[in-house]
Specification:
By secondary structure, the chain is an alpha/beta fold. It folds into three domains: about 170 residues, 3-Layer(aba) Sandwich (Rossmann fold); about 170 residues, Rossmann fold (3-Layer(aba) Sandwich), CATH 3.40.50; about 80 residues, K homology (KH) domain (GMP Synthetase, Chain A, domain 3). Helices cover about 35% and strands about 20% of the residues. The protein has 14 helices and 15 strands. The protein has a six-stranded mixed sheet, sandwiched between helices. Helix 11 links the parallel strand 11 and strand 12. Helix 13 packs across helix 14.
Length: about 450
């Protein structure tokens, strides 16, 4: 985690056991990370994660339930840990239970929080419980910044709390940008690309589950690139919708010219492109050009034959024709969708997962070299001017895309046909079937 992430606005949750601190924590960070159980004292160690609200990010710390006079060995340690967190907190969420009302233990904790009263937000939880309303105003005697009746389980009242909280702990714009980068760095970034009017915007809307972009039968309606974070089956994906790309001769200088540039930029900053093809029209020259752009930039690719209900041939024949026209990206999985109904969306996500797994696959140097030895044992690189070509060693330089460097004595020996063969065999050995594999040949003088 980067230094700026560590220095993000810090919000500490405190309160006695079983008032719903962990439930509140999980709701605010958007995942089940803090253990929730209907038993006092379950949370003992502090748990941290990032929470977001209205493009603002803060670090949230869930602490153990405070029981100042308990005999349990761990709980005094919890109090000591909480007291260490309070001075550095930018804000404190003091969670209480509306169902039980103000207790003596709440009052003891309030005494501990008095030195920080200007940054304490009283979160009155479980307001949806029976009898909670009659206890609600007991808490307003506490001398703190604000009072927020909420239901952590159902999320009621949290918007008002978060509005005030994020306004109170304003995040620096530069820091916010760096935090977002930190959060998104391990999430696949996916660009939706394709010619105008192939159903790309309809597909994007179906993926994100709402009307985020204008869907129109008029070709070229979408001119902006839009980033949307999508969570599906417990996995996160960042989708980049883009304007449709026309043939260069049909692009007029102005809005559409810049839309094309945005599409190219989206490909650059994506990990995987989904090339949306009109199933009725098949692969066009422009589709080939877009596939070529992803290939040359080492991006993962999923080929989506959209409008599958309008195919003029069988699905098998349609895929055969697509494979033939896009032979240079034979690793890309092909899926069929009907964006208007959502048919095939599950298969699309499965294909994305396959590509991402291979796109981020990493192998040890020893394993890569074993693969190299197997390949050259059966089919060594050709000699050059009568002199043998040697391979000294190889290693995987990086992922995204997986890139293998081969150190050799004669770079001239590595003709295109042999490199294609070598990559094909290397794919099999490294188990990289659905993503591009980049081969870099580096020459080293013989000893």
């Amino acid at each position: 985690m980067g230094e700026s992430a560590v220095n993000a606005g810090k919000v500490v949750i405190v309160g006695r056991p079983n008032v719903g601190k962990s439930t509140l924590f999980n709701k605010l960070v958007g995942k089940r990370k803090s253990v929730v159980e209907d038993k006092p004292g379950v949370t003992r160690d502090k748990i941290e994660d990032f929470a977001k609200w209205q493009n603002r990010i803060f670090r949230l710390v869930d602490t153990g339930g405070l029981m100042p006079n308990a005999q349990d060995f761990f709980l005094p340690k919890v109090r000591e840990q909480v007291e260490k967190e309070l001075p550095s907190a930018d804000a404190i969420l003091f969670v209480v239970d509306a169902k039980e009302g103000l207790t003596s233990l709440d009052e003891e904790i309030a005494q501990m929080l008095l030195p920080y009263k200007d940054k304490v937000f009283v979160v009155i939880n479980k307001v949806d419980s029976k009898g909670a309303k009659q206890n609600l105003y007991d808490f307003y005697v506490l001398p703190f910044r604000g009072f927020y009746p909420v239901s952590s389980i159902h999320g009621h009242g949290l918007a008002e709390l978060l509005d005030d909280l994020t306004e109170f702990i304003k995040t620096d714009e530069k820091q916010k940008e760096e935090l977002l980068k930190e959060e998104l760095k391990d999430i696949p970034k996916i660009a939706l690309i394709g010619r105008p009017n192939v159903g790309k915007s309809s597909l994007f809307n179906r993926i994100v589950g709402e009307e985020r972009t204008i869907v129109s039968p008029i070709a070229g309606t979408t001119v902006d690139a839009v980033d949307t974070l999508v969570e599906r089956n417990g996995k996160k994906y960042l989708f980049i919708d883009t304007a449709g790309v026309r043939r260069p001769s049909n692009v007029e200088y102005g809005v559409e010219f810049f839309a094309v540039n945005r599409t190219l930029n989206a490909i650059e900053r994506s990990d995987i492109s989904i090339l949306v093809i009109d199933g009725k029209e098949g692969v066009t020259h422009q589709d080939q050009r877009l596939a070529g752009l992803t290939f040359r930039r080492g991006k993962g690719l999923v080929i989506d034959i959209n409008k599958a209900d309008l195919l003029p041939v069988s699905p098998d024949e349609a895929e055969r024709q697509v494979r033939k026209r896009l032979f240079f990206v034979d690793y890309a999985p092909v899926v069929f969708t009907i964006a208007t109904t959502g048919e095939g969306i599950d298969n699309l996500f499965s294909a994305i997962d396959l590509v991402w797994e291979d796109y981020t696959r990493k192998h040890k140097t020893s394993y890569v070299n074993n693969c190299i030895r197997k390949i050259i044992r059966s089919n060594p690189p050709p000699s050059y001017r009568g002199k043998p070509t040697k391979i000294y060693y190889a290693f995987q330089k990086k992922t995204r895309p997986p890139t293998v460097v081969v150190i050799t004595n004669r770079i001239e020996s590595w003709k295109d046909h042999y490199k294609k063969f070598f990559i094909r065999r290397l794919r099999e050995c490294l188990n990289i079937h659905y993503a591009p594999l980049v081969l870099e040949i580096v020459e080293r003088e013989e000893d």
